[in-house]
Amino acid sequence: MITVCSSLAFKMNDALRFYNAGGGAELQNKGTIDMLNVFSRFVAFLPLSWAMAFGRFIGWIWYHLVPFRRGLAMRNINRALGKEMSRKEQKKAIRELFSNFCMYIMEILRIPHMTLEENKKLVQIDNWEHVDAALERGKGVILVATHLDNVDIGGCSMAMRGAPIAVVVKEMGKTAEQFISSVRENTGVTIVSRKGTKNVIKELLAENKIVTLVIDQHLAKHRSIVCDFFGELAATTPAPARFAFETGATIIPAVISRKAKPGYHHVKVSPPFELETPYDDVDLNIRHNTERLNRIAEGWIRENPNQWWWFHKRWKVQDSPDGWDIPDSLRDRIPVNANES
């Protein structure tokens, strides 16, 4: 049993590296898809409590025996919340994160075999009336989310319940992309690739659809602006504010968190995010509102620091600011030893 779980931990280790790198030729074969489908049926066959226990066990192995990205996660939580959490609290949060992430993997594998009745039991969605009211305006909804807990089961749950939802996703290697996309699409989620997304997103909003944008990961220079995130420089997508200004769509932040009972989740839909226009320049207003959305995301993460993906390299700009367009208001964040361009 230990050998099997260790092997799965290594596979998960590779999958996480693959997910964050956006590639992975080692998974590009039909046999891997078949293996994932078989394993999906196996995990779905298990009682929920067993599947979650299995996930936590793999998380324990990952954290203690295969500590891939553990050091990065510890550094990241310390740089963001070091003044608010003791080292002991940080270590506990990261240990729980590894278990939570492995439960996330088990849940993804179970989604293809999940009934609507089971989904409604496992995923509580509150305040959906905000989305319904926004859709009545006829200009679409931009749902802003982060990588807290299992954002995939949140989106899939909305689709299973009839919401016309699309999600913008990063490019992945063929096999992982095929499997995860099939999981999402089979529940009714429309997948939108980041490449050439502008017109697609505008079309979806014009059709009064819900477009989900996840705002908490590093992006390339041509897709981002440099903002403050937990007091440090971070490349951040301006897409929610930009599309809202350009189309009149309503921005609605929504967050999912894991309940105390393993396998159960709570989605909280916030009231509409009102755009502010303190400047005459539209780009400054986009930056202003993007910073405001970052403050919302920070609040969510502070509430559940053991559920955010700290193993992502979020602060690449802070670590290597050369070549980035950093606004004057944030230039004091540049490390004194950085070579400014």
What does this structure look like?
With 341 residues, this protein is an alpha/beta fold. The chain contains 13 helices and nine strands. A hairpin with a 6-residue loop joins strand 8 (250-258) and strand 9 (265-269). The radius of gyration is 20 Å and the shape is globular. Residues 1-28 have low confidence and may be disordered.
The major pleated sheet works out as: 7 strands, mixed
Low-pLDDT regions: 1-28
- Number of DSSP strands? 9
Gap from first CA to last CA? 54 Å
SSE arrangement, N to C: HHHHHHEHEHEHEHEEEHEEHH
Helix-residue proportion: 40-55%
Q: Into which percentage range does the β-strand content fall?
A: 5-15%
How do the strands line up in the largest sheet? 1-9-8-2-5-3-4
Number of helix segments? 13
Counting helices, strands and paired strands, the structural category is alpha/beta
What form results from the Cα inertia axes?
globular
Radius of gyration: 20 Å
Mean pLDDT: 90
